[in-house]
Amino acid sequence: MKINKTLGLFSMMLTSSIMLSSCGADPAIKSAQEFGAMSAQFRDNTNKLADDIYDSCIRRVQYYRTDINALRQQRNQAWQGCEQFNKPAASQARVANQVVVDYMEAIGKLSSDSVVSFENEFNNVETALKGLSIPTSSGNTTLPSSAVDTGKSIANFIFNWAAKSFRKGTLTEAITCTNKPLQTYTDGLEFAFREGYINGILQQELDQAKLYYDDYAAIAEAQNGAWRDFNNLTKESYNAIVPILQRRNAALSYITIIDKTANTHAQLAVLFLDGREPPSSESESCKTYLKPTSSDSNTLNSQGQSNLNMKLTPEELAQVSEILINYRNEVRPLLKQMEEDLKDK
């Protein structure tokens, strides 16, 4: 799957809504270009965070003392754990992120009747979501079962869209049908990254670095070390700890962006529902998007488009524009800070 055109939904919809309301003025084109740049940033940064599930583990290994045989054995066991558990978890976390961003790409393409292909197989997505397990000192952190199920529903939407060529008349129902699964999935994704990565892996790296330098400070003190020895240890420990804290800040920015993305999607769903009750995921129209694809794609297409050729009024277009411009203004500084915090990677 092509990762991270996460802001594709907002790029396409912002472009169409502003152009329709301002006759294609240059600011609309500029806004779309800005969304494209934001999407590229988010793609790169989320990849780095997923990869750091493994990289942080490897960095932690360097803070094991090797002057005692038992400690060397602990280091070797920790390194083996990185290879056996953290490395596959990093790959699975990439896929878990891709479910959100490829969904947004599909919605963005749907809004403009464009065609997109996805390089991954649905079975790969399902396997990754079920298998995602971030190892921590207190046990493994996995996606909640509700997030696995709704992630599969969103992945179904992506592949159904590609297979059945949904048209832009289905955009409003696609967003209202997928809103509840998206909220559940993003909640689960936030939980996994907060508990598994921030409170788990990064905290372990931080604790190990502190222990390493505290040990050597104690040794220097016992050996009547000079002030210069303690000063060097202080500088080294600072240089080791600050990047860990920066990656934690980057992960918090990521979680905030995911949360704001889900909230913006919910606002659009409310707007498109126009006071009606949200559709059930088991309704025939929603099954078109959320259930596994069928060989009878023509039947499913006709179900999906039977009552969806909704055109937004100028007032609704203005509301869409306001929602998405606010989203852009909130997310842009978070992306900038996230990129700054990840510069050392």
Span of the ends, CA to CA: 24 Å
- Count helical runs: 10
Radius of gyration: 24 Å
Q: How many individual domains?
A: 1
Helix content: over 70%
Q: Report the structural category.
A: mainly alpha
Poorly predicted runs are: 1-7, 12-33, 295-309
Biggest beta sheet summary: 2 strands, antiparallel
Biggest sheet, strands in spatial order? 1-2
Q: What is the succession of H and E elements?
A: HHHHEEHHHHHH
Mean pLDDT: 78
Based on CA inertia axes, which overall geometry fits? Answer: elongated
> Tally of extended strands?
2
Strand portion: under 5%
Describe it.
With 345 residues, this protein is mainly alpha-helical. The chain has one domain. 77% of the residues lie in helices and 2% in strands. It has ten helices and two strands. The chain has a two-stranded antiparallel sheet with strand order 1-2. Strand 1 and strand 2 (139-142) form a beta hairpin. Helix 1 packs across helix 10 (314-341) and helix 2 packs parallel to helix 10. It is elongated, with a radius of gyration of 24 Å. The two termini are 24 Å apart. 40% of the residues are buried.
